[in-house]
């Protein structure tokens, strides 16, 4: 038996889960229904008890025995109704079990007390006891153990009262005892079966729920993994800018949209000047830090609608939709200036960073980014050639 199945194992004699925690959870889950059914059963018992005052009257008339019986019946009825009210307020089925068992003891005592008061109607009372045993097991919700103990009390009490007050023969007493034993066995087996089936149903429901929860957890885990993978694929790990492939995808979309809208579009190719000497002088870690600072300066120089990515090494690219060549020139100059005024660490002293920017302006025949990149790269190369720290714009495409 797997550990999962073991938790839902039901005891073959008590009809309860072997696992105490599971048993408590089960009882809590049926608490509301049990309360309702118990209260309903108590009201019905009170009604049945009340109805028998009519037969008492027809048998005894307004005699002393009748009034004694009436007092007993009124006590039982009042207690039943009081318990119905109490169960509605405090009848938790996981903790206050005794409150659910109490009505059985009160009704059983009431039935036993009828024997000395109406000793001549024993046959009717035997029927009432058998019916009560069945009702205790099946109609009034209780644990099997609670119902069984109450039924044994009723049976033994009734037999004792019959022996003491009715002058019944030992053979008849034995016959009644056998009848009550039979009633108890049938009631016990019926309730055991009901308890077993209800708990199995509960177990199945919970197993299914557990599996669903597990599945939901796995789906959430996979989704978070996918999101992490997407971030890894779309973001440059050092600068947090778009990765090259993601930048290309986004820039292609922007270029296509600009063509459809007949709007201007520019592309920057940015390269940090003399970065090798930075690495050589200050080390790669400091070089990495400077790259992230330059990336930040670039982002701060752009509009939210512009898209920037790290092209590789110390090279960045920017796509500027809805940007005329004149505006692109202004943005590039601003970006260059922001990089030049970057605050660096004290130990770096007067070190000033610079970038060279090549700009390409989209033309009508540029169906994808390739031609634009080539032109921007050419301009970048020209800028490097002319001494770096400058903005160079391709004249192609400028009206
Ligand atoms: N710290 C750091 N350095 C990088 C990274 N990627 C590329 N580099 C370095 O950037 C330097 C680029 O050197 P070069 O291509 O010779 O260019 P440069 O020194 O910037 O000179 P110019 O571009 O001609 O002005 C190399 O030393 C690379 O190792 C990076 O992620 N971190």
Automatic annotation (TrEMBL):
Alphabetical list of CDD domains matching this protein: GGDEF
EC numbers: 2.7.7.65
UniProt catalytic activity: 2 GTP = 3',3'-c-di-GMP + 2 diphosphate
Record's keyword annotation contains Transmembrane: yes
Residue span(s) of domain GGDEF: 263-396
A Gene Ontology molecular function term of the record: diguanylate cyclase activity
The protein's name: diguanylate cyclase
